[in-house]
Amino acid sequence: MSEQTSDFYEFGRFRVKSDERVLLRGEDLVPLTPKAFDILLTLLENDGRIVNKDDLMKKVWPSTFVEEGNLTQNVSLLRKALGESANGPQFIETVPRRGYRFVAPVNHGVENGQDYLVETAAKLPTQLPTNGQKTEPGIKAARSISDSGVRTFLSQRLPAVALTLVILVIAVAGIAYLSTRNKAGASPSAIQSIAVLPFVDDSVDGDAEFLDDEIAASLVNSLTKLPKLRVVPRSVMVTYKGRNVDPRQVGQELNVRAVVTGRVHRRGDTISIQADLIDLDSVSQIWGQHYERRLSDILLVQEEISRDIFENLRLKLNVEEQKQLEAYRLYLKGRNAWNKRTREGMQQGIDFFQQAINADPNYAAAYAGLADCYNMQVIYGVDSPRDGFPKAKAAAVKALEMDETLAEAHTSLAFIKFRWDRDRVEAEREFLLAIKHKATYAPAHQWYSSYLVALERFDEAIAEAKRTAELEPLSFTGSSHLGWILYLSGHNDEAIAQCTKILNLDPNSFPARRYLGLAYEQKGMYAQAIDEFQKGVKISGSPLMLALLGHAYAVSGKTTEARQVLSDLHDLSESREAESRRYVSPYTVAAIHAGLGDKDQAFKWLEQANEERDVWLMNLKVDPVFAKLRSDRRFQDLLTRAGLRP
Predict the structure, then answer these.
(1) Rounded to the nearest 5 degrees, what angle is found at the Cα of 455, between the Cα atoms of 453 and 458?
(2) Strand 230-231 to strand 107-111: parallel, antiparallel, or no bridges (unpaired)?
(3) Residues 102, 43: contact at Cβ < 8 Å?
(4) pTM of the entire predicted model
(5) Which residues, in sequence order, are bridge partners of residue 110?
(6) How many Cβ atoms sit within 10 Å of the Cβ of residue 254?
(7) Is residue 373 within 8 Å of residue 350, measured between CB atoms?
(8) Whole-number CA gyration radius for the chain
(9) Burial level of 338, CB count in 10 A (0-12/13-18/19+)?
(10) Nearest-5° Cα angle at 310, 26 to 69
(11) What's the distance, Cα to Cα, between the start and end of the chain in Å?
C-alpha cells in the first residue's frame, strides 16, 4: 500500500502545508489571499536565494500582465500576516532593484501517510459530538490518544493487520467528526447570493462620485457572469446610496448571504480602494483587500477586485463556466490596455483579446475589442490603413455575426465605414444602432462626434462629445476627446481648459497634450504648442505627434527644425528594422508642407493620402491647418473625391 506524502515548511512559530495551502501559527490558521500564499511558497522553495521580481510575478501571475505594484502590495500583506515589525525583516528581505528572499531558518520536511494519521488521531476529541452538540472553535478537546502514546505503540512494530485496523478506526472517527461539524454549520459553504453596496467616497473632488458608482457597477456586472450566483441588480442597490446602513439589515431586506462594501479615495491621478466581502450568516469578514493604482488603470483594478472576490466565494464552476469567466477577465484587461492608446498598450490589448477568444471562441465582445485595437493601430501609425482596417472590419463583422445587438461591434464597424469605406450613410446608421443598443457606451458617442464634426455638424458634435465626457468623466481618452472636438469647432479657449483639466490628473495623457498643443497653435502660442508636442513625442513615440511638432515648427518660422522632422518621418517609414518602422500618414506630411507655405508639395501629399485612404483625410473639410488651401480649386476637387461634399 503506497503512502500519501505532503510537503511542509516550518519557520519560527509557523508551519506551511503546501498541498493543503494553509499557513498555521501554532495550531491557529493564519488567513492569506491565494496570491500572498503563492508568494510565500515560492520564497520558501527558494530558501535563502534571491527571487527576482520578474520571476516571482511570472510564477504567481502566469500568462497575465500585472504591474510591479501588485507584487509589492501582496508582499506587504504577507509581512503583516507574519507579524513582521518595522525594525527589520524577520522572514522576508527586500533586495533593492532585484527582488526578495526568505532569510529565516526553514525546516523542510515531508509528512507520510502514517505520520499524518497519527497527527489526526492526536487532534480528535475524546468524545465525538453527537447531533445537537457543538465543539466551540479555539477550545482543545481532550485527546483519546496522546502523540507520544501513539508513536510508542507504532514503534513496537505491530503486525500489518493490526496497524490497518488502527488506521481504519482513526479514519472512521475522523469522518464522523467532520461530518458532524458540517451538520453543525462549522465548515464554510459556497455563497450563492450577494449584493454590492454603494462604495463610500472619501475624496473631496466631486468627480470621484462617478468613480464610486463605476466600480460598484463594474463589480455587479462581473459577479453576474457567475451562473450559480444571485446578484442584486444595481438599480436596487442605488437606494442605499448615502445611507448609513447595517449590512445585516441589507441581508435581511434583500435575502442575500453576503455583501461587498468599499471605500474610495482619490489623490490626483492615484486611487485607493478598500474592498471587503462580508458573510452575513456568521457576521464575519471573509476577505478584505486594499488597492492603490493609477487612475488610468481603473479597468484593471476593477478586474482585480472581481477576481479576488470570485476566489473567495467558494463557488464550484464547471469547465464551461470557468472558460467564460476567464474570458471576461481577459477582456477587461484588454480594454484597459487598449484605453492607454500607446503602441505597447494596443499590442497588449490584442494579446489579451486573443487569449479571451482562445478561452471562449464564442465571445463576441473580444472580437469587437480586437477590431478597436486594429483601428487605433492605424490612427497612431502602427499599421497602414491597407493593413489595419481589413483586419478590423473582419473582427467587427465576426462579432456581429455572433451578437447583432453588440454596441461595441456596431461602433467599431461605424468607424471603419467612415474612415476606410467612406460610406457616410452606412457609418451614421451603425453609430445610431450602437447608441440604440447601448446608450451608455461612451466610445459610440465619442466616435460619432468625430463623424459629425468632419461634416461641419458642429453643435451635434459638441453635444455628443460632452455626452462622452459625462458617461466617463474620469476616462482621460474620452474627456480629452472633447478638447479635440472643441478645437475643430473653433472653440480653442474651451479646448485649452478641457485638456489642462485632464493633464492635471494625468500628465502622461498624450491625447490631451496633442489637442492642447493644437489649440495653442491656433491662438499663435507657438512656444507652448511646441512644448506640448515635444512632451507628447516623448510619451507616445507616435509619428502623428512628431508630425504635429513639425507643423508647429513650420508655422512658427523654425524652418530648419521643420525640415528635420520631415527627414525623421521619412527615416521612420523606411527603417530597415521592422520594430522601428512606422506608418507615416501622408496627410500629416502634407500639413508640414502647408505650414512651410509649399502648396504644391502639400497637395502632392494630400493626393497620396487620398489614394491610401488615409484615416485623417476625412477631417480635411474642417482641419484649421489647411485653412490657407481652401480657396484653391484643387482643395474643393479633393473634398468631392473623398466623399466630403454632396
Answers:
(1) 40
(2) unpaired
(3) yes
(4) 0.63
(5) 7
(6) 16
(7) yes
(8) 31
(9) buried
(10) 75
(11) 87
Whole-angstrom distance, CA of residue 333 vs CA of residue 312: 21
Q: Quote the pLDDT of residue 500.
A: 92
Order of all β-strands in the sheet with 14-17: 28-29, 22-25, 14-17, 6-11, 107-111
Residue 588 to residues 413, 515, 549, 594: CA-CA distances in angstroms?
Answer: 24, 15, 10, 10
* The C-alpha cell that represents 592 in the structure block: 508640414
For the chain, what is the largest distance between any 2 Cα atoms, rounded to a whole number of angstroms? 108
Please say whether the beta carbons of 118 and 147 come within 8 A: yes
The pLDDT, as a whole number, for residue 530 is 97
**What pLDDT was estimated at residue 382?**
87
* Planar angle of CA 265, 266, 267, nearest 5 degrees: 125
Residue tagged 492603490 (cell numbers): 292
Q: In angstroms, what CA-CA distances link 212 with 196, 239, 273, 399?
A: 12, 15, 10, 31
Sequence-ordered list of residues with C-beta below 8 angstroms from that of 152, at least 6 positions apart, any chain: none
Q: Which pLDDT belongs to residue 184? A: 34
Long-range pairs of 146-155 with CB within 8 A, sequence gap ≥ 24? 146/122, 147/118, 147/119, 147/122, 150/118, 150/121, 150/122, 151/118, 154/114, 154/118
- 294 φ, ψ to 5°? -75, 150
Q: How far is CA 240 from the centre of its chain?
A: 27
Residue 205 has what pLDDT? 57
Q: In what order do the strands lie in the sheet with 99-102?
A: 51-52, 99-102, 92-95
- The pLDDT assigned to 111 comes to 65
Instruction: Give one word for 288, left, alpha or beta, with left for phi > 0 and alpha for psi -120 to 50.
Output: beta
Run of H or E residues at 28: strand 28-29
For cell 491557529, what's the residue?
28
* pLDDT value, residue 371: 97
CA 486 to chain centre: 30
* Cα 562–chain centre separation: 39
Segments of the chain scoring below 50 in pLDDT = 1-3, 113-187
User: What single string gives the DSSP state of each residue in 143-192?
Assistant: BSS-HHHHHHHHHT---HHHHHHHHHHHHHHHHHHHHHHHHTT-S-----
**Hunting for cell 498555521 — which residue is that?**
24
Q: How many CB atoms lie within 10 A of CB 153?
A: 14
CA distances from 443 to 407, 412, 461, 465 (A): 10, 9, 13, 10
> How far is it, in rounded angstroms, from Cα 631 to Cα 393?
36
Residue 582 neighbours by CB under 8 Å, 6+ apart: 381, 382, 543, 572, 573, 575
Helices marked H in 438-509 — which ranges? 442-454, 458-471, 476-488, 492-505
Give the amino acid at 287.
Answer: W
